[in-house]
Amino acid sequence: MHTQHPRLALATAVAAALTGGLLTFAASPASAADSFQVAKADFNGDGIGDIATSAPTAYVSGHKGAGQVVVLYGTKTGVSSAKRTTLSQNTSGVPGTAEAGDMFGADLAYGDFNGDHYDDLAVGSPSEKVGTDTNGGTVTLLWGSKSGLTGKSTDLRDPATGSHDFWGQTLAAGDFDGDHRTDLVVGSSAATLYLYKGGIGSTGTPGARTTVKPPIQTGSNDYPYGPMNLTAGDVNGDGRTDLVVDGYETKTSSHWNTNYWLPGTASGLGAGSAKALKSGIITGIGDINHDGFGDIVSGASWDTRTSDGRTIPDSAKGGRVSVTYGSASGPAATTSINQDTGNVPGGSETGDGFGWDIDLGDVNGDGYQDLVVSTPNEDIGGVTNTGQVTVLYGSASGVNTTSGAQSFAQSTAGVPGGDEKTDLFGADVKLDDVNGDGKADLVIGSYENGGDGAITYLPSSGTKITTTGSRAFGADTVGVSTSGTPQFGVVFAD
Questions:
Q1: Could you tell me which of 252, 279, 253, 275 has the C-alpha nearest to residue 262?
Q2: How far, CA to CA in Å, does 251 sit from each of 61, 256, 279, 305, 457?
Q3: Model pLDDT for residues 22-46, shown as the tens digit of each residue
Q4: Which helix (H) or strand (E) holds 375?
Q5: Which of 139, 151, 226, 460 satisfies CB 3.0 to 4.6 Å to 189 for a cystine?
Q6: b/e code 293-308 from CB counts within 10 Å (16+ = b)
Q7: Beta strand residue intervals within 401-469, DSSP E
């Protein structure tokens, strides 16, 4: 049985392969596909953004690693543990049964899949045993409603039965063919992606299903290659959603990470027109310079050399992010940012993990998408791997690394909690409007309390992220068992 969140295991394996194991924690690089407006999922249709997260390794009814999904509903005062829904495969109406190692919630993607004007949630359970197919995997669709997500749901099954391929370990939603209906892409440890066309009804039957084969390596039961991350967004401004696939290149045996842009077309995704991008195991897409084209931000949190001394391409000490600006022809010019760039807070130190997770959203309402970058292995005041996050603001010339940057740790005045060893503050990050004021707020996941997990909410003041009105809450406050290491808040839906 695959006993660790596949994306956690995969990302950790990638980091270990590239850095010789310097990045040793099992954090989750979640996809960061936001619209160019202030992003939000709205599962209950009240106009205020909601946050879907998970505890993918939580105990459920005594079953280790069965997994749970938690939806935090936005209110005028943001998100908290008070207004939420907690679901598992033991919830009435949810297909399947909570079993050890299923990891229900290993990946999440939201969109209005059935066209009823409520956002729905796709939930990956990549280690689900399907018949005799160990680690076969399933994808569950949880339907939105006036009361939010309920047990009303259906599931999609792996077309490649018997392949043990962790189906559902990566998910992405978008309108890839431009027909104004939400499509769903499902990945596994195989190189083949499955594209489910929009109009998925309550029976779970999509409009059509096609396959897409980006130029990445297929994995196995021993080492899960396939896509590490899937990110949706319109890079070339044609009104169709494009897809960025983070994977391993197929041309060499060095197993270097290479990412690819696949444009959306009238028939779906154009793998034949794929373009190689800068490396990274986490990607976000948003219009940073407000020119109408989505910009691709890729985080490569590893250091410059492997344990055997090999230099890693496109790397930087302590990690870096690459920003590839969009254009009518797709990806264009690229620039890289690390903690030694301009006035970016902090300094590049071995093992920091800058770029482990990223997200984009408009914090100040100026039309430029802003960028949050996590550094969960940051040491502060002698406390190892306590973590911090950095907010960099968008401008007409792109990411502003000269002025306006902010950084937050649990020792920052007004942020709940304190710096503790291996908190990994910033294991996942989101910039979404969760209080309904039209500005993106910051939501941060961490490994608080030895892996129980916690979420910290920092609202936008209208001009920047502020600690006024901030709050934090842990797994035990949302109905997640703290047996073992549930990892609540390390996966956010995009």
A1: 275
A2: 46, 10, 15, 21, 43
A3: 233 333 334 334 445 556 899 999 9
A4: strand 370-375
A5: 226
A6: bbbbbbbbbbbbbbee
A7: 406-408, 428-432, 441-446, 454-458
Surface-to-core class of residue 155, CB atoms within 10 Å of its CB (0-12 exposed, 13-18 middle, 19+ buried): buried
| H helix intervals, 301-440 | none
Torsion angle, alpha carbons of 24, 28, 29, 33, to 10: 180
Judge whether 115 and 144 are in contact, CB under 8 Å.
no
Structure tokens belonging to residue 163: 């392949």
Q: Cα dihedral sign for 351, 352, 354, 358? A: positive
Per residue in 192-211, pLDDT tens?
999 999 878 766 667 788 99
Contacts with 191 (C-beta within 8 Å, 6 or more apart), sequence order: 213, 214, 216, 217, 218, 225, 226, 227, 247, 250
Tens of pLDDT, residue by residue over 65-107, are 999 999 999 999 999 999 999 999 999 999 999 999 999 999 9
Q: In terms of pTM, does the model score above 0.90?
A: yes
Residue 372 neighbours by CB under 8 Å, 6+ apart: 358, 359, 360, 361, 389, 390, 391, 392, 429, 431, 442
How many other CB atoms are there within 10 angstroms of residue 62's CB atom? 10
Over range 383-389, report the average pLDDT: 97
Helix, coil or strand: residue 140: strand
> How buried is residue 347: exposed, middle or buried, by Cβ count under 10 Å (0-12/13-18/19+)?
exposed
Q: Is 344 helix (H, G, I), strand (E, B) or coil?
A: coil
Beta strands 229-233 and 209-212: pairing type? unpaired
Tell me how far apart the alpha carbons of residues 47 and 110 are, in angstroms, rounded to a whole number: 15
Going by C-alpha positions, the residue among 346, 296, 273 that lies closest to residue 316 is: 346
Least confidently predicted of 153-157, 171-175, 279-283, 328-332: 153-157
For the CA atoms of the chain, what is the radius of gyration?
20
CB 328 within 8 A of CB 293: yes
Helix (H) or strand (E) holding 193: strand 193-196
Percent of the chain predicted with pLDDT > 90: 72
Q: What is the pLDDT of the chain when averaged over all its residues?
A: 88
